[in-house]
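re: the backbone from monday

yeah here it is again, tokenized this time
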């Protein structure tokens, strides 16, 4: 059982803590983190979500996940990076990035807080969490934007502007 905190539209804790699956079943707002892993060539590491994922199976996405109950956003980001791709990152290497993104939908309402880290590992050097992912791959931003438009990622089209910002910043 994975416990998460339910939040309001400001990201403030409501006092409710419940199992992640129950929160999804009830479509309650909760916090998530998304981490852009960027290399010196300005490419972003995407991970292909496992076929057994509840949301966006077999689609490419960021290193991301839920913020557990009583966990800080930063600790959640560091944990997700370690769990999903085996990358040890220090808090100093984890940089907040951009505005938080509020997603209100029929099935998975959440607030995502973004971070980035710089990493120059080769794809085969990452240790992937096989229950969650099938592979990782470096992509340039233009490729990612095309993939978003072709619905090959877990991202909605509103995320394109964030990738364009990354392209200009890196």
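seq for it, each position gets an aa:
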């Amino acid at each position: 059982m994975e416990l998460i905190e339910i939040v309001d539209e400001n990201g403030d804790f409501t006092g409710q803590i419940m199992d992640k699956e129950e929160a999804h079943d009830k479509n309650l707002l909760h916090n998530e983190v998304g981490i852009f892993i960027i290399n010196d060539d300005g490419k972003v590491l995407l991970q292909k979500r496992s076929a057994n994922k509840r949301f966006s199976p077999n689609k490419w996405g960021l290193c991301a996940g839920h913020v557990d109950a009583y966990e800080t956003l930063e600790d959640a980001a560091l944990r997700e990076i370690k769990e999903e791709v085996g990358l040890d990152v220090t808090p100093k290497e984890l940089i907040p990035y951009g505005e938080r993104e509020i997603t209100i939908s029929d099935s998975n309402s959440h607030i995502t807080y973004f971070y980035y880290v710089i990493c120059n590992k080769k794809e085969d050097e990452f240790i992937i969490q096989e229950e969650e992912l099938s592979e990782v791959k470096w992509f340039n931003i233009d490729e990612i934007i095309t993939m978003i438009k072709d619905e090959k990622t877990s991202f909605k089209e509103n995320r394109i502007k964030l990738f364009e910002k990354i392209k200009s910043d890196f």
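The mean pLDDT is 94. The beta strands are 3-7, 13-19, 30-38, 44-49, 60-61, 63-66, 95-96, 101-103, 110-118, 133-139.
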